[in-house]
Amino acid sequence: MLFSKICRTAKAVVPCRNVTVTSSTRISACCLSYRKFRLVNCPTPRRVQTCIQMKPYSASKTFSQQADVELDMSQFPVSHIRNFSIIAHVDHGKSTLADRLLELTGTISSKVENKQFLDKLQVEKERGITVKAQTASMIYEHEGERYLLNLIDTPGHVDFNYEVSRSLAACQGVLLVVDANQGVQAQTVANFYLAFESDLHIIPVINKIDLKNANPESVANQIESLFDINKKDILHISAKQGTGVSSILPAVINRIPSPPSDPERPLRALLFDSWYNRYRGAIVNLAVMDGRLQRGDKIQSAFSEKTYEVQDLGIMYPDQKSTMQLLAGQVGYVVAGMHNIREASIGDTFYKPGHPVEALPGFRAAKPMVFAGLYPMDQSEYLSLRSAIDRLTLNDSSVTVNRDSSPALGQGWRLGFLGLLHMDVFNQRLEQEYNANVIVTVPSVPFKSKLKSTKTNQKLYGPNQEIIIQNPANFPDPQQAECFYEPMVLGTIITPDEYLREVINLCTRKRGEQESLTYVDSSRIYLKYRLPLNEVVVDFFDQLKSVSSGYASFDYEDSGYQEADLIKLRILLNSKEVDELAIIVHRTKSREVGKAVCAKLKESIPRQLYEVAIQAAIGSKIVARETIKALRKNVLAKCYGGDITRKMKLLKRQAEGKKKMKKFGNVEVPKEAFLSVLKR
Ligand code: GTP
User: What ranges make up the beta strands (E) of 397-480?
Assistant: First the structure.
């Protein structure tokens, strides 16, 4: 059928050119490249004459919003594909830049106000931070050619660094965004090295040049001196106002190489992300390295060797948009009837059954930095909470999950997180997305102990055997331990020189050892400190911000273990030990921490009908104490007369308040008390 013939039957009088439509092609696919029109309805060729209606292309409705237009992915050969991520320090404008690029390419409408469009989760919108990397495809015309650009917006906070490292595996280049006012910060350095070590092409971008205090020239000097990048390669933009943004995509096309992929080789696809959909099960993000993938194809996992049938596939444009196929070099989503985390294993390679390929390197496993117990508020919710955790970990593969139990809290799990913010966000997502009501116990970093030949927790250990202590409840008796080790991190701090003294004092208080001190430019200092992780996870960020008026930034990486004089600080409520509140601390900090914990618990445990003694102890020695005075709580005391409804309401509210507490001995403890212990 000829396109001209279709146009004669259409209502609008339009200029047209001949396009051949095969019987299997949907008519809309051939009109796709004819940008002046959009096609409403998506009839089969046979019914096209009666159904279609041509309308002039309108900028108000973006191309991607035309759900009826099916994309023909074969129009994007490997040479016309670019896969790139946006990386930066927290708040330097990644998501805002992503908004502008999506608008510029007509992927989302520019008529509505787009605010961090790719921050889709409720927790991201509420906190104004990105916690989950998001992929979006864009179609962009450059010098008369159409390109398929796959963009991944990544989080900036160190706790979500695993998202960045995974995203980079699906890319050949990055936009390294730096705030024109704040300059290079700790995560800028960390992200630069992630991209550099992955051999990716780096396009430096100085953002927020519209700010009154912007100093792009000095920031360009920092980029040049720290990363050895030529100043003339740096793009200057304001993502908020759109200034200079049009220079980004031509640079992406000209500077970032197309993927080293070949459609003629056997299928080889990398699973780099996944999420759960109630109706479709696990949906996975695949980067097709070689070959082609079509709806109905069978694919096999290199990890589990299980075979699946591709039920649906397509690109994120910016939401899921089905296509008939995904070809070499392209990045998209695939629905293939996978139901749990083990099936959608991050880093897995997929191939066609009978055509095995060498598995891709995958990813290094995420290394949990803090562990905490997670228990249902009510044991009857155990199964539903297990299913919620399974689904959420499908979306966040950096969380480790092991079954655990506690005498007071019942059956639950010990979860490993990349940091406290990560733990907080996971907890919030469980509550918001799965309506779960949970208790999270005091988090702890993974300590180690070398044991003497001994029997602990019903296990027999040989001499010098090392155990990892993820839970303070399992801290061995000091008589049984040869020595203890604590995890260390190598911290990077960038600070204006006027705060140097306070920053150094803080690091010393936190038992840090300086490794290096260098000047980034005439007024900014780049410090490296080896610090105990235990001192960092609690409140180091907050204290660093406070001593530097918010100007210093911090990032860290794992730096092995170091021998340390550790003890278990036991917490007793009315003389009954509460294992879930115990903390492992350095001996020199035990009194200080004990006092702070007792004071915090006093604030967060409500007054009860009897006096409550809160004690911190090392072995049998009490090192701190607080007392909560008794209260005879009579909520009806002021309800005179016969206002029955009000009385009922008050009684109900009191009962609801009680429901949120857990009983330890005779003391009721609200779930907030566990985490308050950390905020010293
Ligand atoms: P995270 O994902 O949390 O790391 O943040 P981000 O890097 O994605 O930054 P985001 O786009 O959320 O922007 C952070 C703040 O900077 C927002 O308030 C933006 O409005 C603002 N912002 C971004 N770009 C510009 C710019 O060019 N000029 C100005 N003045 N503000 C900007």
Answer: 400-406, 410-417, 438-440, 447-451, 454-456, 459-461, 465-469
What is this structure's pTM?
A: 0.78
156 CA to centre of ligand 1 in angstroms: 11
For 122, residues 6+ apart whose C-beta sits below 8 A from its C-beta are 432, 433
Alpha-carbon distance 149 to 12, whole Å?
Answer: 32
- For a ligand 1 pocket test, name from 117, 191, 219, 240 the mutation site with the most ligand atoms within 8 angstroms of its C-beta: 240
Question: What is the DSSP pairing of strand 576-577 with strand 566-573?
Answer: antiparallel
The residue with tokens 């001995």 is 665
Q: Can you give the pLDDT at residue 101?
A: 95
pLDDT on residue 40? 31
Nearest Cα residue to atom 26 of ligand 1:
208
Q: Which fold has domain 447-564?
A: Alpha-Beta Plaits (3.30.70)
Residues of the chain short of pLDDT 70, as ranges, are 1-70, 111-112, 114-115, 341, 453-463, 632-662, 675, 677-680
Pairing of strands 312-316, 331-338: antiparallel
Cα–Cα distance measured from residue 66 to residue 40, given in angstroms and rounded to the nearest whole number: 8
Say how many Å lie between the CA of residue 93 and the centre of ligand 1.
3
Determine which helix (DSSP H) or strand (DSSP E) holds 490, and give its type and residue range.
strand 481-496
> What is the pLDDT at residue 454?
62
pLDDT of 410: 85
Distance 117 CA to ligand 1 centre (A): 12
Query: Where does ligand 1 bind, in terms of residues with CB under 6 Å?
Result: 88, 90-96, 116, 129-130, 155-156, 207-208, 210-211, 238-240
Report CA(518)–ligand 1 centroid distance (Å). 28
Measured at the CA of 622, the angle between CA 617 and CA 627, to 5 degrees, comes to 100
- The architecture that CATH gives domain 268-351 is Beta Barrel (2.40)
Block residue for tokens 């403890």: 669
Q: How many CB atoms lie within 10 A of CB 161?
A: 24
Asked if the 74-255 domain carries CATH number 3.40.50.300, the reply is yes
Ligand 1 pocket mutation pick from 86, 95, 117 by most atoms within 8 angstroms of CB: 95
Atom in ligand 1 nearest the alpha carbon of residue 207? 27
- Amino acid 660: pLDDT: 61
- Measured between alpha carbons, how far is residue 205 from residues 219, 229, 250, 304, 616 in Å? 10, 11, 13, 41, 52
Where in the chain is CATH 3.30.70.2570? 568-678
Return the beta strands (E) in 192-267 as ranges.
Answer: 201-207, 235-236
- pLDDT score for 292: 94
Helix (H, G, I), strand (E, B) or coil at 233: helix
CATH of domain 568-678: 3.30.70.2570
CB-based contact 498:524 (threshold 8 Å): no
Position 680 scores a pLDDT of 54
Residues of CATH 2.40.30.10 domain(s) within the chain?
A: 268-351
Q: Cα(380) to centroid of ligand 1, in Å?
A: 43
Distance from C-alpha of 444 to C-alpha of 286, rounded to nearest angstrom = 35
Given CA atoms 635, 641, 643, 648 in this order, what sign does their dihedral have?
Answer: positive
Please report, for residues 1, 12, 38, 43, the alpha-carbon distance to residue 15 in angstroms, rounded to integers and kept in the order given. Answer: 17, 10, 13, 22
If you measure from the C-alpha of residue 177 to the centroid of ligand 1, how many angstroms do you get, rounded to a whole number? Answer: 10
Query: Which is it for strands 312-316 and 201-207: parallel, antiparallel or unpaired?
Result: unpaired
239 CA: nearest ligand 1 atom: 27
Looking at domain 370-440, its CATH architecture is 2-Layer Sandwich (3.30)
Atom of ligand 1 nearest to the CA of 238: 27
Which residue from 122, 146, 148, 150 is spatially nearest to 134, judged by alpha carbons?
150
Tell me which of 94, 95, 96, 245 to substitute to probe ligand 1's pocket, judged by most ligand atoms within 8 Å of the beta carbon: 96
